[in-house]
Write a structure and sequence with these properties.
The complex is a heterodimer of chains A (911) and B (281). Chain A has 911 residues and is α+β, with helices and mostly antiparallel strands. Chain A is 26% helix and 23% strand. In chain A, strand 1 and strand 2 (16-21) form a beta hairpin. In chain A, helix 2 runs antiparallel to helix 5 (145-152) and helix 3 (108-121) crosses helix 4. Classes of the chains: A alpha+beta (911), B alpha+beta (281). At the A-B interface, strand 4, helix 4 and helix 20 of A face helix 4 and helix 11 of B.
């Protein structure tokens, strides 16, 4: 909206009088952000649904996106930037850091501002008061529990924890190293920075799931005032096909007719700064075509093909076979069978895709939120017809990713517009665009049979899964390959046959989402396990313990396992399980049926890193002549904590304290490739590289000082002090600069040792697995079908908890997403394209979580550590569904378990 | 008129309305989500500063709520027993941010079938006050709401107040909302009940159900069945079939129609079973 000739607007912002020439009808959030007055105020939806834009107006929390700036004339406005006093963090801000309440940090400003209104009234709030005050702010990362803890604890004076001794960083509950900027609003995410004169890009998107289109007079539109450029597929200079798995690359940056899914970008318009980015009247005509929405129907012989080289719309099949599942099932004492269905699930990070780009000499610089900077660079280079060295990716802060920001979104569009105009550009997806155009969790239809012998030993499993991969390949191949490896769950299954198909439809592109299909498979397997345990007359936890992998057991892929932690995880649940069962029985006997209480359990295992494919990471660490210790950390931290954990690992391998480190990156021009942030690989794979680099630098130092292994290192005034009995001083300035520009430096890589899978899926797909088991207590309202979660206990084997505070945060956050998957989430194109129809858990939907960290060292992991990020989501949904069944008999086979579905299932069960 | 006006006096607002027919902006919590643009378009009349449009006052006949009173103020207001249902609804409208700005008048004028303010106000026999430059009139709320997103508001009219009768405010009341998550949720169904008890028997009952039809509605047949019952007997007198017959719910992403009918009956029973003790006896 134009501000030309706008009347002047004055109010108080964070205690200072301010005035703007602003259109009073404009959203306050837009004014605050565009003017630069407060870019700590975030925008996640522009519809009041996420609360990221919360500011205080005369002390009351409001959504700045729903407030006309003319309505704050004369008022006092407080934003996150106003919380710290004289550069000192407030107690609330410190409490957020102390409790690990900020992960990605995109919700943090809204949370802090909303909480500050509560604390002004109630300095020591109860948990219920905190929940009521923060119910309007969504967080997709933390699971809220640490936010509640921080708010309730914010009255306390913050006392800094003692810094861990050199060599003792691993295992410390260190606050996030990148945390302070997240609580002050200083962190810059994709939408928060852009070159002054940047054009604003808007995409024209398909309103249909499948449609032919024709452009009208584009030149006329391009000549409208405020329009700088109009671009279509015809303008793409390189190969107009991208994709995270090169052999499957099939997705155009801008589609040529036809568009294959609703929301696919077909044209791009660049608007001059300040112009109204109005696409009304864009010259395009659409002819809707019949669309495929059902992955079974899509395989019919006469179904039209989305991609001509993929017959039956079948993109890929993943397969594992070991033993003779059919025969073993026939011989089993007990067997159970079921069909299970899950829908598209949206990542719903609070930060929509955003970035900016410009030319730096010859180099195209793209600054955007991403999980995979080097993949972005290479794929953008292909689409734009540039050599990779001419593309530099500068990842911004990432306001949540969970797998979807592995795929390109704004990046190639930004690059294209820069190349075509020579001008800097920026682009921010609206929430609707983000929902329409980003990848989703694959919908699944799974049929499975599992059998066991009379003693309850699992004998065999047959599993057939259809995964709707949507219009383009994205990570469909990974899902199809991961599911067969993991379908057995962490249980001995001597005879197994698993088939997983990824099938195209005109649905949204399904890609990576925390677990790559394994959460869907685990629902089928774990629900059948409960039925099987019942059939065999065994306690459900004991049944799982009886079958849990032990060291030396062989997986369905024929891999012989070592350092398996699942037994430990399930054993850790024994005590809470027994108590919960007794509590449930007592409650049900006392209550007379008003609420039905139940307990459920489920497990997970998950291989860390790519499936039987290389995925190396490289870490560089150096000491400058001035005595500064620099870590080139290329692993993007999307909130999960890589910045902190990788530094902790490197610090201990080197023997210098974490506080000595300065981090660089990620930045494809300055950090070596640490791979993508996915597959729960960063702590393990990049961690190994960081450990190796730290150790290599240490060796070099010890060699120079001629000191023994146990020597203590210290940095002091540009010198490195090495003590082992004698004290030696290395003057760093006196050393010659090495090839990397340092006085001393090391760079090391690590790639997990795996072996390819054969036609029957036999091989060594992963070098490291992580394990976990979760237990859920809940109540079902038998009249309304409403489920209330009471408690969750989560036992996860992470080998070594490099940072227990961050590990708990991962667990709680994964559980919250599992709750959403089980109970409320379902993406439907055209129906749930906002965050009030697409529901994710709020602060009142996540019950207390008790994390039990099991540390069974993995010989391959750095300091014994395994990955955790995806594992934590897998057991939650099946544990909830098993608890619902235990409570009420209701068997849910279609997700989400909305109240009406639970009630229908209850009635089917005759309750 | 400027593109944006924020008068402090009602006559000025009504004059602008009569002459320019601007968009009426109260809290903006329904208006802004309806656009993806950076701001509202056209002429906008902000009514958040008009004297007499904000606040709750006692009148001879009962209570008057200014149409631009935000939900937060309604939640805070210590009202008589009949007020409880409205106050309970107030804390369920969105989160605190929505309650700080969203107004009761905006909720009614927006006329969503899922507007949480409507059932309690129907149960309380609320009347709305509509003013134009020419005249002021009052309408029972049920007549004001003519359909989904349709009202009896005439061009040039502003809703200025909601009036609640003193009798109804003395009764016991309750509001219950059902949604698929705990905060910030569009109702699958919600109910408000108001009951007058004399000599241990129900003498008058008002039951209203929302999100189960094009507009929220009172259930006269079900109400009639309660007359003469003791408060303890009341829940069992709710006949699910009669409730379902009085509603016209739809299937949507949140729930099925059949479920909504069942749920409404369950919620009505629970609201009756859980009425606060005080009130006229
Ligand atoms: C995240 C979120 C959650 C929400 N949750 C709920 C919920 O749980 N329950 C619920 O019922 N609603 C909910 N709402 C909807 C909304 O907040 C309420 O309906 C609110 O009461 C609207 O009031 P307002 O003042 O903001 O209306 P506005 O947006 O200012 O106006 C709404 C409409 O009414 C008209 N209008 C406003 N005041 C007057 C008047 N005095 N006279 C004539 N016309 C007028 C406007 O022109 C407009 O057409 C939610 C909204 C959001 C964004
Ligand atoms: S941006 Fe305002 S609530 Fe989401
Ligand atoms: S930390 Fe809350 S959304 Fe990421």
């Amino acid at each position: 909206m134009k501000d030309a000739a706008a009347p002047s607007l004055a109010f108080t912002l964070n205690g200072q009088p301010v005035s703007f020439d602003a259109d009073p009808r404009r959203r306050l959030s837009d004014l605050l952000r565009e003017s630069g007055a407060s870019r700590g105020t975030k925008v996640g939806c522009d519809a009041g649904d996420c609360g990221a834009c919360t500011v205080l107006v005369d002390g009351a929390p409001v959504c700045a996106c729903l407030t006309a700036c003319g309505q704050v004339e004369g008022a006092e406005v407080l934003t996150v930037e106003g919380l710290a006093e004289a550069g000192r963090l407030s107690r609330l801000q410190s409490a957020f850091l102390r409790h690990g309440a900020a992960q990605c940090g995109i919700c943090t400003p809204g949370m802090l501002v909303a909480a500050s209104a509560l604390l002004a009234d109630v300095p020591r709030p109860s948990e219920a008061q905190a929940q009521a005050a923060l119910g309007g702010v969504l967080c997709r990362c933390t699971g809220y529990r640490k936010i509640i803890a921080a708010v309730c604890d914010a009255w306390r004076e913050d006392v800094a924890d003692p810094a861990p001794e050199p060599g003792a960083a691993v295992g410390a509950r260190l606050r996030r190293l990148d945390g302070p900027d997240k609580v002050t609003g200083a962190e810059r995410f994709g939408a928060d920075d852009w070159p002054e004169s940047a054009l604003l890009l808007k995409a024209v998107r398909s309103p249909h799931p499948h449609a032919r289109f024709r452009f009208g007079d584009l030149a006329e539109f391009a000549s409208r005032p405020g329009v700088a450029v109009v671009l279509t597929a015809a303008d793409v200079p390189g190969r107009n096909r991208f994709g995270v798995i090169p052999p499957f690359a099939d997705q155009p940056a801008l589609a040529e007719s036809p568009a294959r899914f609703r929301g696919e970008a077909v044209a791009l318009v660049g608007f001059e700064p300040g112009a109204d980015p109005d696409l009304t009247g864009f010259p395009i005509s659409w002819e809707a075509l019949p669309d495929l929405s059902d992955p079974v129907a899509a395989q019919a012989e006469d179904a039209p093909l989305l991609h001509h080289d993929r017959p039956g719309n079948r993109m890929i099949r993943g397969y594992t076979r070991r033993g003779d599942a059919r025969a073993a099932l026939a011989d089993s004492a007990f067997s159970v069978e079921g069909c299970f269905e899950t829908p598209f699930i949206e990542h719903a990070y609070i930060e929509p895709e955003a970035g900016s780009a410009w030319l730096d000499g010859d180099t195209l610089v793209i600054r955007a939120c991403t999980q995979a900077p080097v993949m972005d660079r290479d794929d953008c280079a292909l689409v734009l017809g540039l050599p990779p060295e001419r593309v530099r990716i500068l990842p911004t802060g990432v306001g949540g990713g969970f797998g979807s920001k592995l795929d390109l979104s704004v990046q190639p569009l930004l690059g294209l517009a820069v190349l075509k105009t020579g001008r800097p550009v920026r682009m921010v997806y609206s929430r609707r665009e983000s929902l329409q155009a980003s990848t989703k969790r694959h919908p699944s239809r799974i049929t499975a049979r599992i059998g066991c012998d009379a003693e309850g030993h699992v004998t065999a499993m047959q599993f057939h899964g259809i995964f709707d991969t949507g219009a383009y390949a994205s990570w469909g191949p990974t899902v199809a390959n991961r599911v067969p490896v993991h379908a057995s769950g962490p249980y001995r299954t001597p005879n197994i046959e698993v088939e997983a198909w990824a099938v195209h439809t005109n649905g949204p592109v399904a890609g990576a989402f925390r677990g790559f299909g394994v959460p869907q498979a685990a629902i089928a397997q774990e629900l059948l396990y409960d039925r099987l345990a019942d059939a065999a007359g065994l306690d459900r936890l004991e049944f799982r313990l009886r079958n849990a992998f032990r060291d030396g057991d062989t997986t369905g892929s024929g891999q012989v396992l070592a350092a398996t932690g699942i037994h430990d995880c399930l054993s850790a649940l024994r005590e809470p399980w027994t108590k919960a069962l007794a509590d449930a029985a007592r409650a049900n006997a006392a209550d007379g049926g008003a609420a039905l209480r139940g307990v459920g359990v489920a497990s997970c295992w998950y291989g860390c890193g790519n499936t039987a494919l290389p995925n190396p990471s490289t870490i560089r660490v150096g000491l400058t002549a001035a005595g500064e210790l620099v870590l080139h950390q290329g692993a993007t931290d999307i909130g999960q904590g890589a910045n902190t954990v990788i530094t902790q690992i490197c610090a201990d391998a080197l023997g210098l304290p974490v506080s000595d480190f300065r981090r660089i990156g990620p930045d494809t021009a300055r950090t070596p490739d640490a791979g993508k942030t996915s597959a729960s690989r960063q702590t393990y794979v990049t961690g190994r590289a960081a450990a190796a680099a730290g150790a290599a630098l240490r060796r070099e130092v010890l060699r120079l000082a001629n000191a023994g292994d146990g020597a203590r290192l210290r940095l002091e005034d540009g010198a490195l002090i090495v003590e082992d009995g004698a004290v030696r001083r290395i003057e760093l300035a006196a050393l010659p600069e090495d090839a990397r520009g340092y006085a001393l430096s090391a760079e090391e890589s690590y790639d997990p040792p795996t072996q390819p899978l054969d036609a029957d899926g036999q091989g060594v797909p992963y070098a490291v697995y992580g394990y976990g088991a979760q237990m859920v207590e809940l109540e079902v309202d038998p009249a309304l079908g409403k489920v209330r979660l009471l408690n969750i206990v989560a036992a996860h084997d992470l080998g070594r908890a490099i940072n227990p505070l961050l590990a708990e945060g991962q667990i709680e956050g994964g559980i919250a997403q599992g709750i959403g998957l089980a109970m409320m989430e379902e993406y439907r194109p055209g129906r749930t394209e906002n965050l009030h129809d697409y529901l994710i858990p709020t602060i009142g939907d996540v019950p207390p979580v008790r994390s039990i960290l099991i540390e069974k060292p993995d010989p391959e992991g750095p300091f014994g550590a395994r990955g955790l990020g995806e594992h934590v989501l897998i057991p939650t949904a099946p544990a909830i569904l098993n608890a619902i069944r235990h409570a009420s008999g209701a068997e849910l086979t279609r997700l989400p378990a909305l109240p009406h579905r639970v009630l229908a299932a209850l009635r089917r069960a005759g309750k | 008129m400027l593109d944006f006006s924020r008068p402090t006096a009602l006559p000025e607002a009504l004059a602008l309305l009569a002459e320019h027919r601007p968009l009426i902006l109260a809290g903006g919590t329904d208006l802004f989500p309806a656009t993806e643009r950076a701001g509202l378009s056209g002429r906008v009349l902000s009514i958040d500063r008009i004297a007499g449009l904000c606040g709750i006052t006692e009148t001879d006949a009962g209570l008057r709520i200014g149409a631009a009173t935000p939900w937060a103020e309604i939640a805070r207001h210590p009202g008589p027993p009949g007020w409880a249902a409205l106050a309970e609804a107030a804390v369920e409208v969105g989160g605190r941010q929505i309650q700080s700005r969203g107004t009761i008048g905006g909720n009614l004028c927006n006329a969503s079938p899922a507007a949480d303010g409507v059932p309690p106000l129907l149960a309380l026999e609320a009347e709305v006050e509509l003013a134009s430059a020419q005249a002021t009139r009052r309408l029972p709320l049920a007549e004001f709401l003519t359909g989904p997103r349709r009202t009896a508001l005439q061009p040039g009219e502003l809703m200025t107040a909601i009036h609640l009768p003193a009798d109804a405010l003395r009764d016991r009341s309750r509001f219950l909302k059902l949604g698929a998550r705990s905060h910030l949720v569009i109702s699958i169904a919600m109910v408000a009940v108001r009951v007058r008890v004399g000599a241990g028997r129900i003498a008058e009952a008002a039951l209203a159900v929302g999100a189960c039809g094009p507009v929220a509605a009172r259930l006269p047949e079900v109400e009639a069945a309660l007359i003469g019952a003791s408060p303890a007997e009341a829940p069992d007198r709710i006949d699910p079939a009669t409730v379902a017959a009085a509603l016209a719910p739809l299937d949507d992403i949140r729930a099925t129609a059949a479920y909504r009918g069942d749920a409404a009956a369950v919620l009505l029973r629970r609201a009756l079973a859980d009425l606060p003790d005080e009130g006229t006896t």
